[in-house]
Design brief:
Blueprint: H1 2-5, H2 12-28, H3 31-36, H4 40-54, H5 59-63, H6 72-80, H7 104-112, H8 117-142, H9 146-156, H10 172-186, H11 190-201, H12 206-210, H13 215-218, H14 226-250, H15 259-265, H16 269-277, H17 280-293, H18 297-315, H19 320-323, H20 328-339, H21 344-361, H22 367-376, H23 380-385
């Protein structure tokens, strides 16, 4: 038991942190906290509520006064005919011209009979609950307790990887894609992992660069194995074959993103990385140091190169902020790596620091701000910039 205490240095800062830690530990033993952390269903509900409070969608704009955004009609058109090429109807720069091989969300809505914006938003809310429940389940698998898993999951609700709520239907595809990635991370059999990954790839291509992070999640206590790497490579080959077949049979296609856009936006790399990881930059950095000291070069390379690749892809598209959500597998892996080596007391203080930084840095629109905007017709930021 004494090993878990691991007192901090006898300095005023150490005593202060010790006091904060003691209060946090007493709080985690409260019966209400224990109830919410008992299983993924309860934890998922609480975490979804935190996501909604911290980043509330523009429901009133999508459903009300200003009508649907420019991206909804093409998506609902795809829902009616998921395997029909709709790209000729839209310019190459339009979001709809990239949907040819992102047909899983439309096929899902088609199968469920969801052919309206309101129905899609309800489905997105259910998918958000699944993200939170799966995140808690993965953390609970490796955490010392349900309370610790819940505490670690909370900071993820404050970054793009834990939610993808933005105005219009931005985030609908990403929420489902994150669901499939986390489900693949939680799955045990090779076939189920491959099927979930294929569905993720056909939900959004950005899951392809996020999927190597699963090598660190499938077995966090070991280095990536050749068998798991072979599974990823095989899945990618099958994906290419299916994509080519669908293009040949149904004429599906997707307009590419011009390389010049990436070359023009590379200075945004630090901003995108900070926006996507926020406080988890600290945990990921510490994980890299631990892997370096352990000489686990394959895991270190995977964590660094994978995170860099996701960030590079994020800056190559218009919606950079939302694209950083695909850092989630790498951020989660970094947390799990340092959890194994830090005493529980120090680890929880670190997670509290991450959550505090995320609260200060995050830039979504919270529920109180949304209500203020709805009642006043102007956002709080607009009023502060121009009070008259």
């Amino acid at each position: 038991m004494a090993a878990h205490r691991a007192p901090l240095p006898d300095h005023w800062t150490g005593r202060l942190l010790d006091g904060v830690s003691d209060r946090c530990i007493r709080w985690t033993k409260h019966r209400t906290v224990l109830w919410w952390s008992k299983d993924p269903w309860r934890a998922g509900l609480l975490l979804t509520a935190v996501c909604l409070f911290w980043s509330f969608p523009y429901y009133d704009i999508v459903l009300g006064t200003n009508g649907p955004g420019v991206n909804w009609p093409p998506f609902l058109e795809q829902v009616e005919q998921p395997f029909t090429d709709h790209t000729p109807h839209y310019p190459p720069t339009h979001h709809a011209s990239k949907l040819g091989f992102r047909f899983v969300p439309a096929a899902l809505c088609h199968a469920l009979g969801t052919d309206s914006i309101a129905g899609a938003l309800v489905l997105q809310l259910a998918m958000q609950f699944a993200v939170c429940a799966l995140l808690f389940a993965l953390l609970r698998r490796d955490a010392r307790s349900g309370v610790q898993a819940l505490a670690v999951a909370l900071p993820f609700c404050l970054v793009a990887g834990g939610h993808s709520f933005y105005d219009d239907q931005w985030g609908f595809f990403d929420t489902l894609a994150l669901d499939l990635l986390l489900a693949a991370a939680a799955a045990n059999g090779a076939i189920s992992r491959m099927l979930l990954l294929l569905l993720a790839f056909f939900t959004d291509e950005r899951t392809i660069v996020a999927s190597p992070g699963l090598l660190l999640l499938w077995r966090p206590d070991e280095r990536p194995t050749t068998g798991k790497l072979a599974l990823l490579i095989t899945t990618a080959i099958v994906y290419i074959a299916i994509r080519w077949s669908l293009g040949s049979i149904f004429g599906l296609r997707s307009e590419p993103v011009p390389w010049s856009y990436l070359l023009d936006r590379w200075p945004l790399f630090p901003y995108a990385l900070l926006h996507g990881a926020e406080g988890f930059l600290l945990t990921t950095g510490l994980a890299c140091v631990l892997l370096w000291r352990q000489r686990s070069w394959s895991s270190l390379g995977l964590l660094v190169l994978g995170s860099g690749l996701v960030t590079g892809v994020a800056i190559s598209v218009f919606d950079t902020e939302r694209s950083t959500a695909y850092l989630l597998p790498y951020l989660l892996a970094g947390v799990l790596i340092i959890r194994r080596d830090l005493p529980q007391r120090h680890f929880m203080l670190l997670i509290a620091g991450v959550a505090f930084f995320n609260l200060l840095h995050s830039s979504p629109v919270s529920l109180p701000e949304q209500l203020f905007r709805m009642l006043n017709g102007r956002s709080l930021g607009d009023i502060l910039r121009d009070p008259i």
